[in-house]
C-alpha cells in the first residue's frame, strides 16, 4: 500500500509541475499588469481543478451562503496539510494568499508566488509589519485575501486546531470587511504532514457564512477570533465523528 501511495505522490507532483509550466505564461500577465490581479484567481481555479482531477482526487466545494462578487473578503481556513494551499484555489471568489515565505526559493514557482501573493518572514518584525501594510493596501485595491489563522501547520498527526493569531481579524475589523471561516476537513488524511505521501480520499472544502465586521472595533478582535475558531472547530468535530475517529481537542 505504501508503494502505491509513493507512486501516486510522484505522479501527483509531476502533474503539479507540468500544469504549473502551462499556467506560468498566463500568470505573467498579472505580474506585468497588476490591475489584472483577478486573473490570479481564475488561473488558480483552473490549476487546482485540473491537478485534483488528473490526480484522481474527487473534490466538493460547498458554500453556506452565496458570496458577493465585488465584495472583498478575508478567508480563514484551518491548516492541517500542505495540500490546503492548492485546495483554496478551488474558491469561486478570486483571492491572493498571505503566508510564510517558505516557497520563495523554489525556482520559477517562488518568483511567481512572491510577485502575485504577499509573503512574510515571521522571524523578522520588519517583515511582519510590511506584510500588514501590503495586506491592507491589497484590500484597498479590491483584493480578497486567504490567511491561515493558525500561522502554519502546527499539528503533525491528528487534526488539532491550533490557537489563532490576531492578524487576519485585526485587518478585517480595520477595513470593515467580512471574514469567511473555511473548513477543510479531510486534507490531513489525503496528505498527512508527517508523511508527505498521498492517500486517496474525497476532498471537501466548506465556505461558511461570512461574518460581518461593520461597526466592530479593534477591542473586539478576540471575540471575532473566537467566533471563527468555534465555527471551524464545530465543523471539524462533526466530520471527525462521522469517520468514527477521536474528537478534536481545541
TrEMBL record:
Q: List the keywords (alphabetical).
A: Acyltransferase, Membrane, Transferase, Transmembrane, Transmembrane helix
Fetch the SMART domains from UniProt.
PlsC (SM00563)
Signal peptide interval = none
One annotated GO molecular function is:
1-acylglycerol-3-phosphate O-acyltransferase activity
- The regions listed as transmembrane in this protein's record are 12-34
Could you state one GO biological process linked to this protein? phosphatidic acid biosynthetic process
The organism's superkingdom is given as: Bacteria
In which pathway does this enzyme or protein participate? Lipid metabolism
Give every Phospholipid/glycerol acyltransferase domain span.
73-187
InterPro entries, sorted: Plipid/glycerol_acylTrfase
> Is Ribosomal protein included in the keywords of this UniProt record?
no
The protein's name in its UniProt record: 1-acyl-sn-glycerol-3-phosphate acyltransferase
Task: Give the species this sequence originates from.
Answer: Pseudochryseolinea flava
Amino acid at each position: 500500500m505504501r508503494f502505491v501511495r509513493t507512486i501516486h505522490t510522484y505522479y501527483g507532483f509531476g502533474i503539479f509541475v507540468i500544469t504549473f509550466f502551462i499556467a506560468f505564461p498566463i500568470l505573467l500577465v498579472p505580474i506585468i499588469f497588476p490591475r489584472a490581479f483577478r486573473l490570479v484567481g481564475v488561473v488558480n481555479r483552473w490549476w487546482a481543478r485540473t491537478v485534483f482531477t488528473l490526480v484522481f482526487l474527487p473534490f466538493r466545494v460547498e458554500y453556506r451562503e452565496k458570496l458577493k462578487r465585488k465584495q472583498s473578503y478575508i478567508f480563514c481556513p484551518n491548516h492541517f496539510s500542505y495540500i490546503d494551499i492548492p485546495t483554496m484555489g478551488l474558491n469561486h471568489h478570486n483571492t491572493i494568499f498571505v503566508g510564510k515565505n517558505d516557497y520563495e526559493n523554489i525556482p520559477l514557482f517562488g518568483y511567481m508566488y512572491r510577485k502575485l501573493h504577499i509573503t512574510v518572514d515571521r522571524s523578522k518584525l520588519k517583515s511582519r509589519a510590511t506584510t500588514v501594510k501590503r495586506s491592507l493596501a491589497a484590500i484597498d485595491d479590491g483584493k480578497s485575501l486567504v490567511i491561515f489563522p493558525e500561522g502554519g501547520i502546527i499539528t503533525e498527526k491528528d487534526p488539532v486546531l491550533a490557537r489563532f493569531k490576531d492578524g487576519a481579524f485585526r485587518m478585517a475589523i480595520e477595513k470593515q470587511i467580512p471574514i469567511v471561516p473555511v473548513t477543510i476537513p479531510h486534507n490531513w488524511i489525503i496528505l498527512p504532514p508527517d508523511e508527505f505521501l498521498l492517500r486517496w480520499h474525497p476532498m471537501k472544502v466548506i465556505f461558511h457564512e461570512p461574518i460581518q465586521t461593520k461597526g466592530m472595533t479593534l477591542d473586539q478582535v478576540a471575540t471575532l477570533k473566537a467566533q471563527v475558531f468555534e465555527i471551524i472547530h464545530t465543523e471539524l468535530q462533526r466530520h471527525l465523528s462521522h469517520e468514527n475517529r477521536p474528537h478534536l481537542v481545541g
